Amino acid sequence: MNRKASVITLHSHIQEDPVLPERMHLMRLLAMILVSGIFFLGSGVSEAQVETDFPASDGLTVHADEYILSDTLPYIVLFHQTGSSRGEYKEIAPRFVRMGFNCLAVDLRTGGEKNYVRNITAMNARGAGLQPGYYDALYDIRGAVSYAEGKCKKPIILLGSMFSASLCLVEAVNNPHVSAVIALSPGEYFGRRISVTDSMQFLDKPVYVYSTQEEHPYVARIFEKTRGQAVTMVQPVNVPGHQGSAALLKENPESHELWLALMIFLNKLFLSAQ
């Protein structure tokens, strides 16, 4: 399905169907209903934000912020971009919590400080004498999925920003515990270690993919070989867009429409899991 509106364009591998502004108005109404209803499963329940540690799949201690509503609700596991930390999601994670999801914002072993939050996993890696590259953070993602899977048996959704978005996509191909991916500005970050484009021919799970106007042609090529489940592709139309998770920050003009598209994507996933 191809949906066009004033701020975003949505694409899917299933079919091409231009959407008139009137239909975008219906999408907004639907989103309002979702916000007030289905996604407020957690309303009336006070979330607890706690710091936690768990092992990566290679044994390194990984640090994260956990936002807990209930062990009966799905997890969205959030991974930051280059040079960053779990602090990247200080604004974004609580919004997902208000939509009725537990969240786990993870420090990957490559990174630094964001929003005055230090990357403790990166500090642990340096203390262990490691010099990790982007691809090595896959060990941390696998550990985070195992941790979330141990906390509840509900769907686990991975959200990644830039290089971590690509790692989330690769992990989704191979990990049966991953139900879906939200990939914000993915790309080919790993040189000869792995081709994300080649991996995507084996992808069989729902994916929400955001890219800026400039990134879009390049990002779309990554999914040319994808078959099976639809890939929902989102891009700004009237603004260039911000890379990665920054596009979801309320200060940026594309964020409102992107959140609407996200709510629709997650609602379809949530209902299919009932």
What's a quick, concise take on this entry?
The protein is 31% helix and 22% strand. It has helices at 21-36, 92-98, 120-127, 138-151, 163-174, 196-199, 216-222, 255-272; strands spanning 3-4, 8-11, 48-55, 61-68, 75-79, 102-106, 113-114, 117-118, 156-161, 178-184, 207-210, 231-236.
Distance between the termini: 24 Å
**Which structural class is indicated by helix and strand composition?**
alpha/beta
Strand order, main sheet: write it out: 1-2-12-11-10-9-5-6-4-3
* DSSP helical segment count: 8
What's the domain count? 1
**Helical percent range?**
25-40%
CATH homologous superfamily placement:
Alpha/Beta hydrolase fold, catalytic domain
The CATH architecture classification is 3-Layer(aba) Sandwich
Taken in chain order, the helices and strands follow as EEHEEEHEEEHHEHEHEHEH
Number of strands: 12
Mean pLDDT: 84
Give a structural overview:
This protein is of the alpha/beta class and 274 residues long. It has one domain: Rossmann fold (3-Layer(aba) Sandwich). It is built from eight helices and twelve strands. It has helices at 21-36, 92-98, 120-127, 138-151, 163-174, 196-199, 216-222, 255-272; strands at 3-4, 8-11, 48-55, 61-68, 75-79, 102-106, 113-114, 117-118, 156-161, 178-184, 207-210, 231-236. The strands form two sheets. The chain has a ten-stranded mixed sheet, with helices on both faces. Strand 3 (48-55) and strand 4 form a beta hairpin. 47% of the residues are buried. Mean pLDDT is 84; it is low at 1-8, 10-29 and 31-46.
